[in-house]
Design brief:
Number of helices: 4
CATH architecture: 3-Layer(aba) Sandwich
Structural class: alpha+beta
Shape: globular
Radius of gyration: 15 Å
Largest sheet: 5 strands, mixed
Keywords: Transferase
Protein name: Acetyltransferase (GNAT) family protein
Helix content: 25-40%
Pfam family, one: Acetyltransf_1
Number of domains: 1
CATH class: Alpha Beta
CATH topology: Aminopeptidase
Strand content: 15-25%
InterPro entries: Acetyltransferase_Butenolide (IPR053144), Acyl_CoA_acyltransferase (IPR016181), GNAT_dom (IPR000182)
GO molecular function: acyltransferase activity, transferring groups other than amino-acyl groups
Number of strands: 5
């Protein structure tokens, strides 16, 4: 990552920027109002700017001590595989190392094919000897 080109900022980007990134990577649409509400509950967030455009993001939700969930780790297509995701995750893991108690659970759901990326940060693939498959549900509010 060319450090002179990209600017990493600790804080929340505008909700519309995360909505846009989610759509670019095919994660589906979340309305801006819902995203704003979700972002307000974040423990920590970081985003990456390139010429005033948000091209990367990640955030943590949880209880701030025993449970942390990493969410919205996104790098805009065309800027992937340039070290941006690694730089963002280093900030995320640094926050967790300063705030998590011993034995805290840190979780995430890796996008298909991205599991090896997260292993570099100490995450385990599931299922394994001790844990079953991770599970997920997308809520459909009717």
């Amino acid at each position: 990552m060319d450090k002179g080109k990209y600017e990493i900022i600790e804080g929340l980007p505008a909700a519309k920027e995360i909505v846009k990134l989610r759509n670019l990577v095919g994660w589906g649409d979340v309305d801006q109002e819902s995203m704003e509400k979700g972002l307000a509950s974040s423990l920590y967030a970081v985003f990456v700017l390139l010429d005033e455009e948000v091209i990367g993001t990640a955030r943590i939700v949880g209880d701030g001590s025993t449970c942390f969930y990493i969410q919205d780790v996104i790098v805009k297509p065309g800027h992937q595989k340039m070290g941006i995701g690694t730089a963002v995750m280093k900030r995320i893991m640094n926050y967790i190392s300063k705030n998590a108690c011993s034995g805290a659970i840190v979780g995430l759901m890796a996008a298909k094919g991205k599991e090896d990326f997260y292993e570099k940060f100490g995450f385990w693939k599931r299922p394994n000897e001790n844990f079953g498959h991770g599970m997920i549900q997308f809520w459909d509010k009717k």
